[in-house]
Amino acid sequence: MGEHSIYGFSGAHRWEGDACPGSVTLCQGIPDTPTEYSMEGDAAHYLAAQILDAWKMSGDIETGHQVGLSMVGSPAPNGVMIDEEMYDACVGYSMAIFDVVGTDVDNLLIEHRVHAPSIHPAAWGTMDAGY
Fold it and tell me: What is the pLDDT of residues 98-119, one digit of tens each?
């Protein structure tokens, strides 16, 4: 899914406070080699974003689900095939967001970059969805 912050939020359990601040330095230079699982996760992120984008553009969650369903059997940009299991998981994810957002999709943020310089100047990440 692209670049990662050395102070990424998903790794905060490792570097925040007294946990292991040296892990940031130790991890620099280690190649970020994709695995089958990370590639599948990237494809699922792509599919979920497509569903949410279609919902946001149309104002109708079912339109988002139809867009996602039309992608089953097609490859994501990284080449991983989108299958029914991935689609079903993304529908469940989108419905969880729908439970929070309802019809107020104008304020839904999708794959949105956020920065947290108050934590560290290099602390940033990408929210899957925000409201």
Answer: 999 998 999 999 999 999 999 8
Quick check: 43 and 80 in contact, CB under 8 A? yes
Q: How far is CA 23 from the centre of its chain?
A: 24
- Chain Cα centroid distance, residue 45: 5
Bridge partner list, 75: 81
Please give the Cα distance from 131 to 126 (Å, whole number). Answer: 13
Assigned domain for 3 exists: no
21 phi/psi in degrees, rounded to 5: -60, -25
Question: Which tokens hold the place of 106?
Answer: 């104008």
Say if 115 falls within a structural domain: yes
The model carries a pTM of 0.86
DSSP per residue, 74-87: SB-TTSPBP-HHHH
What is the block-wise mean pLDDT of the chain (131 residues), using blocks of 10 residues? 77 83 84 92 97 96 97 98 98 97 94 92 92 93
Using an 8 Å Cβ cutoff, are 24 and 15 in contact?
yes
2 inside domain = no
